[in-house]
Amino acid sequence: MGKNFFINLGTILAGIGGLFLFLKSRLSTGDIQKSKTDIKPCKRPFYYCEIHRNGEVSPCCPDFLKYESSPGNIGKEDFDKIWNGKIFTDLRQRVLKGDYSMCNRDICCFYEPCSVSDIPPDYKKGPKDFTMSYDFECNYHCITCRDSVKVNTAEEMDFYEIILLPKIIKAAKNAETIGLLGAGDPLCSRHTRHLMRELVKNYPGIKIRLSTNGFLMNEKNLTELEIQNNIQSVSVSVDAVNGETYKKIIRTDGFDTVIKNLEMMAEWKKQGRIEWMTINFVVHLLNYKEMPEFVKLAQKLDVTALFTTYRPWQSAEFYKKYDEVAVFEPANEHYCELAEILHDPVFKDKKHCLLEPRLLDIANS
Ligand code: SF4
Ligand code: SF4
Questions:
Q1: Of 92, 94, 108, which is best to mutate to test ligand 1, by the most ligand atoms within 8 angstroms of its C-beta?
Q2: Nearest CA to 60 among 133, 145, 137?
Q3: Residue 3: its pLDDT value, please?
Q4: Ligand 1 atom index nearest CA of 42
Q5: pTM summary value
Q6: Distance between alpha carbon 122 and the CA centroid of its chain, in Å?
């Protein structure tokens, strides 16, 4: 398997909002392939950054970038110095000239072409948009992600609460939006729950992009956290429309609760309380036959179903079955059946269905 298959989990979950916007814009222009060779400046390093495991800072998903040493660690250094430091500055200067030698454009999902006048004039003050991908605490242990439930250790909690939290609050002084959580579940994690409260307390206008499994996404929880008026969007990993399939993949009995919470959040979207909502489906052998029904669920809720292909993250044993479960690989024995499924007219409903470019290619073949 090539490097493309090892995009880290945090990236995809954390960036799902960006991926959503990327796919939406590309689908509307029908220009997916061309985007890989565009040399217009990419706006992203001027307004965005991610915080990863142990506090490492990255301008984009680390898998989409090539740099020899780390841009810096927010736990150990002053964030403003990292943001205006050598790697961020190099990357910005290069993309301004259309030089993408620091980027893996073949797999980057977030290239954002712009003109120089689109670059925020105050970008040196700090990112307008952050994604947090360092906290892995989650109430689930999905088959594609991990083999046991992750609870932060006392040592991790001390690091997150005592070292990272105050530094992130300070670093977010220029932020308008914040993406949570690229690695675990923001509504379950004790630290991220605290972080959200603190962010909203310090910056009442800040907007949150929630990436969650949806189990705890109910009005009571969101109100208790006092973030109910600060949610910009929700991106919910669901992966099935059948309770039995859900149980096999997510390895818990939460399906009915999640559906109820999706209905509540879809109502919030209808009322204009949140801007957009995706329900996410990572395609593999255990669920591909449910893809058309999943679009119908999105139609019923009037939200968008986002389909991505399974990446073999080595944090779960499931990756060893990659060849068997990757139905989107032409060599897989179920590939033709997947292609047939993807020719269902329901996938043409662009308001309610977004296919990752790789799946779109199959649908259009
Ligand atoms: S092209 Fe991709 S990897 Fe490079 S700066 Fe833009 S978003 Fe980041
Ligand atoms: S909900 Fe599942 S995929 Fe998401 S972080 Fe938790 S275990 Fe991983």
A1: 108
A2: 133
A3: 32
A4: 6
A5: 0.90
A6: 26
